[in-house]
Specification:
With 331 residues, the chain is mainly beta. The strands form six sheets. The chain has a six-stranded mixed beta sheet. A four-stranded antiparallel beta sheet has the order 3-26-25-24. A four-stranded antiparallel beta sheet has the order 4-5-6-7, covered by helices on one side. Strand 4 and strand 5 form a beta hairpin.
């Protein structure tokens, strides 16, 4: 991959800092929609969610009319593998460092929810677990993948075990319902501490390994926007307007945030933040490939839109609407 380094001096909200902008070209562009359609003989599906770990990626194709899914997976090569049918359908995908794919299955008649584990190479199921609550979210923790319900974290595979419960200090009620129920992402630092990021408030909360609160800082997304092409979005969390398309916490302790509201012609800007201080480490300007379905009067480039993404040792960007996946280096 060819990387071009451009250095900008930006005034962060915390202190004056220098942040690099890394212009990244995709090392691989894959057409997931075409691969899933070829494997199933159907085109009545959506692509919902993507995960990435140790050079591998996985995504889910959902067939709403028949209530089933398939798993698509691959690595840095051009090949795409597609699984057999998965029932009930999956609505969340994640990966651990051991090459296992975790699928959150929708509620069935028999349980509040299920988590299925599949091998990344064969795409065959290894185990399926009933879970006590619906709506569980994955949590990256070293080589393991945990799940959480609100602030309660637990391990499912190979057996269920509580891990920690985050303790939230008293604070005034949120000014709006949107902030009270804002989407959160949680991941573990190499030190064993936990990091929580609020996608509306842009607050980064740090907790000890036992769940005790350490402190809260604001993610410096203003500094990230200052080096991006286009008009930055204003910080207005109480309006329910988010400046975040998607976020990912990595095993090496970095927080990646894809910025919203920038030109559809690209590039996609991804802020890399230090979760302890909230400061911008660098911004990645990921050049987005073109797709015929994306050509329009307002976008003559046909650039894909970074609707979804995932990060571990690679960055993957997914345009769910057209089914194009682009892979980038994190360097």
């Amino acid at each position: 991959m060819n990387l071009k380094i451009v250095v900008f001096a930006v005034a962060a909200s915390h202190a004056f800092s220098v942040a690099q902008t890394v212009n990244a070209q995709p090392s691989r562009v894959l057409n997931l929609r075409a691969a899933i359609a070829a494997a199933t003989g159907r085109d009545d599906f959506t692509i919902d969610g993507v995960a990435q770990s140790h050079g591998r990626w996985a995504a889910v194709g959902n067939f709403e009319s028949t209530g089933e899914s398939v798993l698509a997976a691959g690595d840095d090569s051009a090949s795409i593998r597609v699984s057999d049918w998965i029932r009930p359908p999956a609505d969340r995908v994640a990966m651990d460092a051991n090459g296992l794919v975790h699928l959150r299955l929708r509620q069935s008649k028999h349980s509040a929810g299920e988590i299925e584990i599949r091998d990344h190479t064969t795409l065959r199921p290894i185990a399926r677990y009933n879970v006590p609550e619906r709506g569980l979210e994955p949590v990256v923790s070293g080589s393991e993948l945990l799940w959480r319900r609100r602030g309660s974290l637990f391990k499912i595979h190979p057996s269920f075990a509580p891990v920690a419960t985050l303790i939230y200090p008293p604070h005034p009620p949120a000014p709006t319902p949107e902030l009270a129920e804002e989407p959160l992402s949680i991941f573990a630092l190499p030190s064993g501490q936990w990091v929580q990021f609020g996608m509306l408030s842009e607050d980064i909360s740090v907790f000890e390994s036992d769940g005790a609160p350490v402190g809260v800082v604001r993610a410096d997304l203003d500094a990230a926007y200052s080096g991006a092409k286009g008009t930055p979005l204003n910080y207005r969390p109480a309006s329910g307007s988010s400046r975040v398309l998607w976020t990912a916490g990595t095993r090496d302790g970095r927080l990646y945030v894809c910025l919203a509201g920038l030109p559809v012609t690209g590039p996609a800007y991804i802020a890399v933040l230090d979760p302890i201080t909230g400061r911008l480490v660098k911004r990645i300007a990921a050049e987005t490939p073109a797709a015929p379905e994306r050509f329009a009067k307002y976008d003559g480039t046909g650039a894909i839109y970074p609707m979804d993404g995932a990060v571990d040792d690679r960055i993957v960007i997914l345009d769910r609407k057209v089914g194009i996946l682009a892979i980038y280096s994190t360097e």
